[in-house]
Amino acid sequence: MLLSISGSLWKHTKPNWIKGNWNCFRSINAFMMREGVESLEQKGAESEIRDQYAEDSSDSDGGVVNEFKAVFKKYKKRRPPPDFSGVIVSDVRTSSILESRLIFPEPSDITTEKEELANRLGLISLSEWRVYSFPTRPGLYLIPGLLKKEQAKIWLKRAFGYANPPNITNLTIRGKDVKTDPSLLTKALRWTTLGVEYDWNTKQYPPNGRPVPEELYQLGNLISNSLKLGDMRPDATILNYYPPKSALSPHVDKSERSNAPLISMSLGQSAVYLSGALTLSEPPIPLWLRNGDFLVMHGEQRLVYHAIPCIGPKIEKQNFETNGVEEDSMIVDYLNCSRINFTIRQVNP
Ligand SMILES: O=C(O)CCC(=O)C(=O)O
Ligand SMILES: [Fe+2]
To answer: Distance between CA 203 and CA 206 in Å, rounded?
Structure first.
């Protein structure tokens, strides 16, 4: 009904809540049209974009009720909006589920070399690094706000840069790429694979690949070492680009051949992340992943089901401002509407 209002009348009558999100709305609609998905006009506000893990979780798990899917559906629903008060915030004062500690409690743990590396990567000073852990999820670590806020633009530019050929993206199979058509960056890019490039069809990694960009290698290794999870030699990364209203279905990342941790970095708008168990019959715990947060899955947490049921400014607004440079405004608009997640991985032992 709303969408049938057209032309200048609509420009003047759109309510405040949609004015702020209008660019987000336009870009997702264009994105869906290009993907051959029904547009919002055709399907209404509950429309859905199928993601690359959509096949991985059925409604029943060998006859056992899929408790995970029920929670996923609860947070994915937009009308009426779900109650987000049960989503865990990474703050010990508001949550009894979390424990937290400084990662480098002693000044002697902090070397100039390590501090310089953290700074080059855009991370906050080592003395402020705080990790949250979950008594029911040994091996799951959340490091909130590790990336300095102003670094989001720099990392988003990298995330777009990584989508250039020869790296593979969701557009490659359609013979398209962001180099020949940069408008696809904001309209249709959903994922990029780097290094040993994951194949979504076979659900396998090939034996080898090109090295991952140096900054991703260093980021993965620094975080793994800092949490005392051992040296990590990242050789793969998957980037997921989430337009508003998109989701990532329940899945397990089980194709990597090493036991190294999986390290995820989030940029842009907030997401609800569901951390489950080894089977879908156990309900997941929901937690916020916000701009600059890192989540690490290690040990028994490396093989649990997880998912992103919802993201976007209508769920929790993160504000980014332009510094007036023209190129910046596309980057800032994207951060104000969408979310990007990098998962740094080590495929080969
Ligand atoms: O977007 C996220 O936080 C999760 C991404 C993820 O699970 C994956 O890439 O396998
Ligand atoms: Fe995953």
So the answer is: 10
